[in-house]
Amino acid sequence: MTHIARLNAIRAAMADRGIDAYIIPSSDPHISEYLPERYRCIAWASGFTGSAGTLAITKDFAGLWTDSRYFVQANEQLAGTGFALVKLKAQGAAEYASWLADTLPAGSTVAFDGSLASLAVARAVEEALTPVDIRVDGHVDLLDVVWEDRPSLPAAKAYLLHEQQTGESIEDKLARVRTKLKEKYASAHIVSTLDDLAWLLNIRGSDVQCNPVVLGFLLIADRQTTLFIDANKLGESDRARLQQAGVDVQTYEDAFAAVRKLDATSILIDPKRTCFAMYDSVPPTTKIIEDINPSTRLKAVKNKVEIAHTRGAMLKDGVALTRFFKWLEEEVSHGKLTEIDIADRLQQFRAAGKDFVDISFDTIAGYLEHGALPHYKATEQSNATLAPKGLLLVDSGGQYKDGTTDVTRVVSLGNPTEREKEDYTIVLKGTIEGSLAIFPSGTRGYQIDAITRRPIWETLRNYGHGTGHGVGFFLNVHEGPHTFNPSNVDIAVEEGMITSIEPGLYREGEYGIRIENLVLSMALEANQFGAFMHFETLTLCYIATDLVEKTLLDKKHIDWLNAYNAWVYKSLAEHLTTEEAAWLEEKTRAI
């Protein structure tokens, strides 16, 4: 079926059910950012493959609401599909709901599949539509009717990690969560998000591309813990270990029924991380306490074992990146490399190292104007051939058994212009300012975001994405609850958090620049003025200096850059061949 045929089939199903508008979120029953094939509903319906967006379909209009990261991509992918791009004014806002309220007449019906919408999204829709007398039905799955040959749920095996790798046992993690539940006067708790489940049970899998998670729900009660999972995914020894930890294993599909039969006075539910259908399954006699999943906050703070392992993963990643950039420099002059070629080759370099499991997200290899698309992924249609000139942006990461990496570098393939150097240096100043930040305990993400942006703002430049996101331990590369972005006014930076610092600058149709490292939040000193914190940079990959306009840097920026590159060389040299080490030594020479 073409995308227009699929849209027509959805509209026919809407007409059969008396539905005037149908909403399709980018999500699954676990409110995941990255989705199993079965739940890539927006891609199936419209052709848009970005990780953030919402479709709203009426009888005479079909739109994709998404943010500035995807405007160019969406325009390209939606061409000829019957869907139009609607540009969000605020990232993540339910502006489609307001549009429906303004567009549809009173008495209309708007529907969505409640297993694909978070409670927060469902409420935003209801709050916008109910006051204008529009009925909302959150229990309609039209796609299962019209999606022929819809992929089944993944069936790959799952496995448990030893606490020597994780630094904490299943029993201790569950005990810590139960302590938090008691503080909230909750006698039960449902965990839907896959990275929370993975962290709590020290379990990993491969049900979602690039994310080592397994599909499941976890119901934690006062004395009982139940994991709802495809039992065939677990080996006998892992089932025995879970039983030893007090975890009963039941069928994945039984999770909603178990919540409907729940015998508990109260249950804690995270409205942003629980689907509406699960929330709606809670018995009316059970009090619902809404709060963030305790595990979301707990896993964000890495323990000493996780931190030590992560440093090891950074070393392996740094070796792979060094070999990649050396290879790239030597091969680009032949004029045969494409964006897909270099993404594949980088994965090969990573895979050749010890403990590599997968990439942590689809590699962004953006040459020239493609670098200006923050979430670009080369396709056969867009795949650009590299030439020995212009800027190349490479944003990539690896999943290793001992950690998760995410790094962005920009290199010149030849003849950089003065404006390219100026833009690059200004972004580098932002990365350095964020990395050098010293801040009081309790600082929020929006403050780190502003510190990082300041040298960019001073030149009347800016970028349209957040400055940083949390990163998991051999888990999701995007991890909450902490972020360094303007909207994070609630979550404090805590000791032990791993976060990216990745300012950028994008000239549409020309090139993009982003320089990203991962940093570890650490205590610095306490005195009469309070406790202060700083960052330790974890990423090991040289920062190109041939694009630096030294006159735009202060001494502290130059000192940081020279010290960082010297540390990269010292850390990696003994793991490289003589030729590779000599190449890296030249790249990290002080400016």
TrEMBL record:
GO terms for molecular function: metal ion binding; metalloaminopeptidase activity. The keyword Thylakoid does not apply. Residues 532-591 form the Peptidase M24 C-terminal domain. Keywords: Aminopeptidase, Hydrolase, Metal-binding, Protease. This is Xaa-Pro aminopeptidase. InterPro entries: Creatin/AminoP/Spt16_N, Creatinase/aminopeptidase-like, Creatinase_N, Pept_M24, Pept_M24B, Peptidase_M24_C, X-Pro_aminopeptidase_P. GO terms for cellular component: cytoplasm. Residues 311-520 form the Peptidase M24 domain. It comes from the Bacteria. Belongs to the peptidase M24B family. Pfam families: Creatinase_N, Creatinase_N_2, Peptidase_M24, Peptidase_M24_C.
